[in-house]
């Protein structure tokens, strides 16, 4: 698929906003499900990009910055894979290949993230100097420059992919043998499972395992829609909260959940 000038500009704007939101975390444009959906919306490929964003979101659930360890760049992975999916023109058939390409792009994006954050360190010193001068205008200017650098971190690679054009991207995807495409699909599915498993590992307690199992059982009932599953989930959460307030055990400090295997709940209840 060949994009016109307006579509290219809109894709670059979405890419720029996704890069900024990777730091701001205000509107979450950098999240895969939002970034891919917006690119699909402006390019006329909403359904394939929405599916791609949903699957990438499952992978990115397990990505988090912990201490000095920086998580893979979800914004670059989302934007680049969505653009490749659109340019490839394969529709939903190209989602597996796009996911397989997204993961190494996310890791490669760490280099750009490190570079931009290193440059931002120097900008902080300029802002300190402006603060000593009492110049709020300069402080605002340097802050905008630092944020725009984050946007360019995604917009420039997106522009390079768009500059390559649909022809080479489509030719590359079509040259992939069937065994490679099938392998990429299997690998992409495994990565999704690993990302979701990392989230479960962080939040798993004895109290939530029954709800987890119940959710899987209900998901097998084809007659229940996503809205129905959401309503059931909200209802179960409200029931759980109501029962937890009623008590059900004795402990020191008046906390009914102490020692129940949910340390976060214990901390909140004892606060």
What does the oligomeric state look like here? single chain
Order of helices and strands: HHHHHHHHHHH
Strand elements, count? 0
Output the number of helix runs: 11
How many individual domains? 2
Could you describe the 3D structure shown?
The structure is a single chain. By secondary structure, the protein is mainly alpha-helical. It has two domains: about 170 residues, no CATH class; about 70 residues. It contains eleven helices and no strands. It is globular and about 60 Å long.
Question: Which features does this protein show?
Answer:
271 residues, mainly alpha, 11 helices, 76% helix, globular, sugar transport, PTS system, mannose-specific IIC component, GatZ_KbaZ_carbometab, PTS_IIC_man
Blueprint (SSEs and pairs):
Elements: H1 5-24, H2 32-43, H3 46-60, H4 74-88, H5 95-133, H6 136-164, H7 166-175, H8 178-203, H9 209-219, H10 226-246, H11 263-270
Helix pairs in contact: 1-2, 1-4, 1-6, 2-3, 2-4, 3-4, 3-5, 3-8, 4-5, 4-6, 4-7, 5-6, 5-8
Can you summarize this structure?
The protein is an all-alpha fold and 271 residues long.
